[in-house]
Design goal:
Blueprint (H helix, E strand, L loop, with lengths): L2 E2 L2 E2 L5 E3 L8 H9 L4 E3 L3 E2 H5 L3 H5 L10 E6 L3 H13 L4 E6 L4 H4 L11 H13 L5 E6 L9 H10 L4 E5 L14 H7 L8 E4 L5 H11 L3 E4 L8 H12 L8 H19 L3 H4 L2 H7 L7 H9 L3 H15 L6
Parallel strand pairs: 3-4, 3-11, 4-6, 5-6, 6-7, 7-8, 8-9, 9-10, 10-11
Antiparallel strand pairs: 1-2
Helix pairs in contact: 1-11, 4-6, 7-8, 9-10, 11-15, 13-14
């Protein structure tokens, strides 16, 4: 049984990665239904929380059905991160996660996210202060290092554990790599198999099939896997991995009817939560994947990603339903 603090997550938990403009409440609801064991919010700016910025505060929204759920924060100033931790603790998540992995220039170049990988002592100090600022378990999401010459993750993980974190998720790339090339899981395995480590270690990077999840789990001994991009527009990835791990067999992919139904619910929840403009715009990235691999779908896809209203999306999906019916596609 894998545990973060007192939170039980099962034998090989599947985590939904925190992804900006993706891991919002509507999408988390769908992933939970399909078997995600632990989910994290989109990352939240510590400066935004302190200044009561609307977008940052809205990201604190979590719901009972999501539990266990972690709220992820990021920032470059230790005092601001302490204050943000206190604000976040008041909203009663199960976990507070620190983002030390975001490679995006506007974040990393300010010394936040993966930027802090250039200053390991500060990373350790900040983590220690955050742990002291809350009674909740604190976890960390990070990368192997800043670049090829600074992959200090084995030592870094030890030091973060020593100041009190309860789990670590490691993306198998450096900041410099962004999302290019293949994720290197060998160092994630070294962290997990370091005899000094006694907290859960989760691997992240390129898990896009049930087979890969099993291979990486067996090969590197990680406690579970975190899934990011493969879940976008495809929450069924959690169901498929769970089934494969339990039976050694692949479950049938979702039927067309399932895809349409989930897409409808996603757009409706998104509009309800984000409003009629953002709710439409920020769900578009999912459409491509909801119907990925469906033959003769290009025209419908183009219309879906350019539709401006909830009603228009529903009309297109009704046409899709009529055209494809109950067909199932491998």
């Amino acid at each position: 049984m894998v545990k973060i603090g007192n939170i039980e997550l099962g034998d090989f938990p599947l985590l939904l990665a925190p992804m900006e403009d993706v891991s919002d409440p509507p999408f988390r609801a769908l992933c939970k239904e399909q078997g995600a064991d632990l989910m994290y919010t989109e990352f939240i700016s510590s400066e935004g929380l302190i200044r009561d910025a609307v977008k940052s505060v809205q990201k604190l929204d979590i719901y009972e059905y999501e539990r266990p759920v972690g709220i992820q924060i990021f920032g470059y100033d230790i005092e601001s991160m302490k204050q943000a931790t206190e604000i976040t603790t008041q909203t009663n998540p199960d976990i507070i996660d620190i983002n030390y992995g975001c490679p995006v220039k506007k974040v990393a170049c300010k010394g936040a996210g993966a930027g802090i990988l250039q200053d390991i002592p500060k990373m350790v100090s900040m983590t220690a202060e955050i742990v002291k600022s809350t009674n909740l378990p604190v976890t960390v999401k990070t990368r192997l290092g800043w670049d090829e010459n600074s992959k200090y993750i084995v030592e870094v993980a030890e030091r973060l554990q020593d100041v009190g974190i309860k789990a670590i998720s490691i993306h198998g790339r450096t900041r410099k790599q962004m999302y290019k090339g293949e994720a290197d899981w060998s160092l994630i395995g070294e962290v997990k198999n370091n005899p000094r480590m006694n907290i859960p270690v989760f691997g992240n990077g390129d898990i896009d099939t049930p087979e890969k999840a099993k291979i990486m789990g067996n090969r590197y001994g990680v406690d579970g896997v975190m899934i990011g991009r493969a879940a976008i527009g495809y929450p069924w990835i959690f169901r498929e991995i769970k089934h494969y791990l339990a039976t050694g067999k692949n479950i049938d992919p979702p039927t067309m009817a399932e895809r349409i139904e989930v897409c409808k619910r996603h757009i409706d929840m998104s509009v309800k939560w984000k409003g009629p403009i953002l709710g439409i715009v920020e769900t578009r990235r999912h459409y491509t994947n909801y119907f990925k691999g469906i033959p003769h779908f290009k025209d419908y896809r183009m219309r879906l990603v350019t539709a401006d209203t909830q009603a228009e999306v529903h009309e297109i999906l009704a046409e899709v339903e009529e055209a494809f019916g109950e067909h199932q596609f491998a």
